[in-house]
Amino acid sequence: MAEELKDKVYEYLSNHYYLNLATVSPQGRPMAHTMAYVSEGTVVYMVTDKNTRKVQNIMQNPYVAYTVDEDDPDWFEMQALQIEGKASIVTDENELREIGEILVAKFPIAADMPPDPDSIMIKIEPEVVYYLDYSIKFGYREQVNL
User: Which of 38, 82, 85, 117 stands the most exposed, by the fewest C-beta atoms within 10 Å?
Assistant: First the structure.
């Protein structure tokens, strides 16, 4: 069952486009950010401007959380992921190149975008993953151990 659940998490991440990232400001205020992402297993990557509030928040406190979910009005069909993890800025050129290829495969429009010297790649490595599936039972949530 554990492997089946891990596979559901991998598939869910690879079949969705946006996540809702939660960071905490240096003043202790929670902030939410909608982000396009790509994934490799349970690790997610996002490109953003290096001067954004989310980057400033991550530099002060790398612990983040995010959700990936459906926009479905039927509560009893809801499926989602809740993930807590640690964010970092990707600086390794090989990793940037590999993830760039994954990004263009998922978002072909990215291939037409000119390079931006202010863009950076954020990497989130999960520490706790919850898989929600209300079609099993309203409120059903299972922790995935990686």
Answer: 117
